[in-house]
Amino acid sequence: MIPREISGPQERFERSGAQALRDLRPMSTRVWGSLMSEFSGAMLSVGAGLMLLEPASVDLIVPAAIGYAALVLTRRVELPMRLPKSAGVADWNYPDPKNRAPRMAAGIIYLGRDVAGRELWITAEDGRQHATIPGTTGAGKTTAILGFVSNALTHASGFVLVDGKADHTLFDEVMALARRFGREDDVLHLNLLVASGNKESNSFNPFATGNADAIREMVVSQLGEQAANDSNGVFRSRAVALIGAVIPVLTWIRDHAGIPIDIEKIRDALELRVIWKLGVKGHYELRDPATGKIRDIPLDLPQDVVYPLLAYLGELPGYDTDLDYNKQKSDDPSKQHGYARFYFTEMFTQLGVSLGHIFKVEQGDIDMRDVVLNRRILVVSLPALENSSDTLAGLGKIVVTSLRGMMAQMLGMPKEMLGMEAPYHIVLDELAYYATSDLDRMMAQGRSLNIAFWLGFQEVSGIFARLGEKTYTLLGNANLTAAMRQQDANRTREWIEETSGKTDVAQATSFRGGDIGVYHDTRQADVRQVSRVNWRDLQSLIEGEAIMLFGGRRIYAKVFHAKVDKSGPKPLVRRLSLAAPARAELEAKLDAVHEIAANIENGMVAAGGREPMEPTLRAIYEAFRDAKANGGDRDACVDAAIRAAGEVPFVPGEERQGAAARLLVMLKSALHGTGGEAPGGVRPNEPFDKVLFEKIVEIEAAIGEDETAALERAATLVGKIEAAVKETVGTLPSRENREKLRADLAAITSMIAPNAEAEQQATPRRRVEASP
Question: Start and end of every TraD/TraG TraM recognition site domain (predicted)?
Answer without folding.
Answer: 423-520
